[in-house]
Design goal:
By secondary structure, this protein is mainly alpha-helical. It has a domain of 26 residues. The protein is built from three helices and no strands. The chain is elongated. The two termini are 27 Å apart.
Length: 63
């Protein structure tokens, strides 16, 4: 599972080189490059929450 999460974190870097280097199309009124950046900020937060929940060091509750 961790390898998948690590792999997902490389998508923004790879995509920024090939896919998002343009202004159009506009998404929600934003240029595509801005949309892509905001999207990955949100997705990175979600991935970090998932990684934190899966981390065995965080299990066991407060003692």
């Amino acid at each position: 599972m961790r390898k998948i999460i690590y792999l997902l974190t490389t998508i923004p870097a790879i995509g920024s080189l090939v896919i998002i280097n343009r202004v159009e199309p506009y998404v929600f009124g934003m240029p595509f490059v801005l949309f892509w950046t905001i999207l990955w900020i949100c997705l990175t937060s979600i991935f970090l929450i998932i990684a934190n929940m899966l981390d065995p060091a965080n299990k066991g509750g407060a003692e």
